[in-house]
Amino acid sequence: MIEEYFINEDTLLLVPKDKKTTKIFDINGEYTIKKNIFNVVDESCQYYGSNYNGRYVSAKKTLDMDYKLPIIIDEVKEVVLFPTCSPKLNNCIWICVNNVENYSKNKKNSVIKFTNGETHEVNITINVLENQILRATMLLMKLKKRKSNPKKIG
């Protein structure tokens, strides 16, 4: 069990084990942390200079949506996570879109292949997964556009 973990460019996904423990899958291995999944996400946002609420409001305004929003964790390295369902639910998994290589359908579930070759089956339909990947990619694209063409005052 680890004491601390900040989501980064090596993060694959975060899975709640229970209300107080999170399993973290990373390019470098698997970790268990005695923190609920929301706290891991929020503390990671804080580590990179914001918090979950600030990231949520930003994503809501940028995408003009207000549910199951992807979150920019690290603006500099452009790390974006998306939830598989409402983040308020205990079974919500967070996936790092940056490391998704491919995905496929397995009955009612989806299988995600990550850039390091690992695969993980998640309990969401392929349509929901595709929609969430689209939202996260759109947020990432808009972030990149803003960084390359910042609005000038005046």
Give a verbal description of the structure.
With 154 residues, the chain is an alpha+beta fold. 30% of the residues lie in helices and 31% in strands. The protein has one domain. Strands 3-2-1-6-5-4 form a 6-stranded antiparallel sheet, sandwiched between helices. A 3-stranded antiparallel sheet has the order 7-8-9, with no helix packed on it. The longest helix has 23 residues. The protein is globular and about 50 Å long. The protein starts with 10 loop residues before the first strand and ends in a 6-residue tail after the last helix.
Short description:
30% of the residues lie in helices and 31% in strands. The chain is of the alpha+beta class and 154 residues long.
The count of domains is: 1
Mean pLDDT, to the nearest integer, reads: 95
Number of helices: 3
Strand order of the largest sheet: 3-2-1-6-5-4
Query: Roughly how many Å is the radius of gyration?
Result: 15 Å
Kindly, what is the distance between the CA atoms of the first and last residues, rounded to a whole number of angstroms? Answer: 52 Å
Keywords:
3 helices; three-stranded antiparallel beta sheet; 154 residues; alpha+beta; 9 strands; six-stranded antiparallel beta sheet
